[in-house]
Each structure stands twice: as C-alpha cells, then as structure tokens.
Amino acid sequence: MRLTILGCCGSIPGPDAAASGYLVEAEGFRLGLDLGNGTLAQLQTVCDPFELDALVLSHLHPDHCADFSALTVLRRYHPAPPYDPRQRRLGVHAPSEAPGRLANAYAPHEAERRDTDLSDVFDFHTLSREPRRLGPFTVTPVPVAHPTESFGVRITHGDVTLAYTGDTGPCPELDELADGVDVLLSEASWTDGPDRPEALHLSGTQAGALAARAGAGRLLLTHLPPWADGDAILAEARAVFDGPVERVAQGAVYDL
After folding, report:
1. CA distances from 92 to 58, 128, 149, 169 (A)
2. Does the pLDDT of residue 197 top 90, yes or no?
3. How many CB atoms neighbour CB 25 within 10 A?
4. How much is the pLDDT for 194?
5. Model pTM?
6. Cβ neighbours of 45 (radius 10 Å)
7. Does an H or E element contain 123, and which?
8. Which strands make up the sheet holding 132-134, listed edge to edge?
9. Helix/strand/coil for 168
10. What is the pLDDT of residues 151-174, one digit of tens each?
11. How far is the C-alpha of 239 from the C-alpha of 212, rounded, in Å?
C-alpha cells in the first residue's frame, strides 16, 4: 500500500499548500481520500485524475471536498478523455448529503442549481458502518464527532491497515477506528492549553494518546492549520506516544 500526501493543511489551504487530500494505491488501484482546496492540482502531478478508481470523502467541509467541483469540470468537459466518463462513472463514497451539497457547490446560479445532477459522471454511495470492497482494499467507515456528518476510515490491504481520522473531536469511536492499525493518519489541529478553541478537532496530545491506546505502529500528523505551531503539536504527540511520529508534508510518499 502506498500513501501520497496531496495536501495536509487544515481548515484552509496555506501558502503554496493544499488542504486535506490523499491518494492510496495498491495493485494498480488508485483510491482518492478527500479532495480539499488545491488537491486536484497536486493530484495531477502524480497521475491523470481520470486514473482515479474510487473517491472517499470523509465529510463535506470545503477543506476536504472543495476540489470536487473542479473534478466535475474535468470529467464533463475534457475534450479528449481516455474513456467516456458517462459510461465509466467514478464511484464516490461520501456522507448522505453529498449528491445534493456537491451539486449546490458546482452550480453557478440558482436556476441551474435546481436542475444540477452530478450523477452523469459520478456514482454516489452513502457511507455507513458497513465495510466495503474498493478494488484490493477493504474500507471500513467509522462515524466520528464533528458538527457535520463525518467519518474516519480504516483501509486494509493484505495484512496492512491505515486509519484516517478525518476531522473529529475526541470521541469513543476513535478507539475503534485506530485499534491495532499499522499507520494512524490523524488530524492534529491544535495544541493543548487555555486558548484552545472548542474541541471540534484533536490536539497533538490527543492524537498521540489515541495512537498509544490503539497500539498503532506509526503516527502521521496532518490537518495542521497554517496558523498552528507545528513544532509544538509534534512535541505534544511525541510526549505521549513512544512510536514513530512525524508531521506529513505535501508530496510525501509512504510505502506501508
């Protein structure tokens, strides 16, 4: 299994830095995982976006799905696609409101919004707790705590499992998500302290503690806002998890 970081900024993109988006590959199958602001540009440096075999959206905040509109333009209007996108629709696995909300984001005005339906080039599937087989991967969604419907996902290939938290505050479901994984790709948006905002995201300490409780083999920190103190977040995680920990960087590639 190979993990490529298309973007790892949280809440908004940063200077020359895309928001949340990842590419997971095995046996020639390409699985997109979130597609936040700027990630479609980064994806094009790795592969032709028409080569995506499936896409999972953890939730529908723009920093995790904004470039879906750009992907729609590509799939609808590219003058010479490698195949007919209407005959080979891209499977999109996302929260229940995805078809409507993504159509709203794409439509340029109210009249078109009423008639917009993206199912001509996308095949939408609603996320639930049920595991699903996507190519060589078993993908298991786990609901997590966030103001909007939000999922973490476990992605297993062979005997290797990657868990991705998406965006979440502390919740019991995180232990289920991360239990025994080889790699935990965890958001870590804040440092602990009196000025920490409402707990809608994990701190470095909480991400590290989750990895320690779960017995994770490795912790990768992501979704750091441009204004965050990345070194402090990393130090917090290392203080409570004694396994390998690092902050991911855009363009980094991990062979798991």
Report:
1. 11, 13, 16, 25
2. no
3. 22
4. 67
5. 0.96
6. 9
7. strand 122-126
8. 132-134, 137-143, 151-157, 160-164, 183-187, 219-222, 245-247
9. coil
10. 999 999 999 999 999 999 999 999
11. 11
